Amino acid sequence: MSEIGSQSATRPAPGADGPQTAAEAWDLVTVPVRQGLEAVDILRRAAAPAVGSVVHDGTCDTLGFLVPPGTAAAWDMPGSACTRTSGRGLRLPELPELPEPAGDAPRPAGWLLPPGDSDPVTDPAVLREALGEAARLIEAADGCR
Hints:
The chain has three helices and five strands. By secondary structure, the chain is an alpha+beta fold. The chain has a five-stranded antiparallel beta sheet with strand order 4-1-3-2-5. It is globular.
């Protein structure tokens, strides 16, 4: 995910074919895919679903949650990283349907939850809580084996 987390992002205009020209920077919280998927599920099941846009890396090893700019300065959750992305030019347009790669070819990064009409970012405090709950669920499940 480093190629995503090392740059800034622009949000596509709803219904547009490409990204907007004006940059809108976000920070990116990356986590292992298992914890990230649990957190997405927790956030989507909440009384008021609170998950914004989420990207995955090409190997599906990590998920990245778009969070408001400035989050990286205070992010200290073990097992995750938050990368400041402002000012480095990555565009995160809507991705087209991609064919399955042939053989061992790596899959390109893509959206798990693409930007929509709602806020594309996840509240960092809510995300921190969901990631903590996800880690506890995974630890409990692994302890039952």
